[in-house]
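Tokenise the fold.
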Amino acid sequence: MRFDYYSATIEDDPITVLKTLSKLGDQTLTKRCDQLAKAYRYETGWEVIHPETGTACKVFAAPGKRPFAFASSDATDSFADAVRDVWPTRHLVTRMDPCQDFYDERARAKIRRLMWSVARERNMSYQVIRSPLDKTKGQTTYLGSPTSDYRMRLYDKGWERFSSVQARLGRANVNPAAVTFAAHDGTLIRPGDWIRAELQARPQGEEARRAAAVATPEQAWGFTDWTHELARRAFSLDLERAYIRLRKLSKDDEALRWMVRQYRGPLQRLAEQLGGWDCVGLTLSEICKGLDDEKKGSQGRF
């Protein structure tokens, strides 16, 4: 099992992030993609390119925001490894897509039955998309709505890859019966036999995103009750249920987070001047006490 998509915000400056991730490709080929960055609500963007495999990752930046980076498809493994190696505790996962490949078309019917069973039991959205006239278009089964934090899809990876070959060589020049793809172990696979089960996981909240940053692809299936149960039945994964949802913040928590966002710079400078965050806490305590004394003094004058 592996990741087919991985995106995260990174607690570092954009130049350092870009310089580090540029090593995944050829730095001379890195190009700007500001227009795409703006679609993600960032101002500037860079596309890191490998001379042989194409796009290695993309990095976006904007004032006041953590840099955002992501990779997809075959580039995902190298990207995720790099991010986890360099920023193991300083990146927050916004999306991760763990996937499992099957090289037998019979897997489609088995897993689809399980998806339908879960959909009925939990009253979830279930949809099958296929082309009745062209089997080379493949078919995709969805469990969960497009806006859900967690959504599963089962699709014909072989026919998807076949479409890429057609687009490159021309439809008339490619015979489906003559095309095979190499599996990870070197086995040759026909397009119709390559099935992929994939989970789109979008953790919400800082605590959940930090927990996701250390989760394996297998563990990501344990983030919800229904994905945990489906993975156990479909992939025979013996997983522990992973509870990563962020607790609801109290009004005091929200007020404190607002204060830190507003005055993060002065607080950090104060910590540097005083020798640590413990001293900041003591200083804030003294300020609160002083304000209380001032309030009592003013009340005594009337």
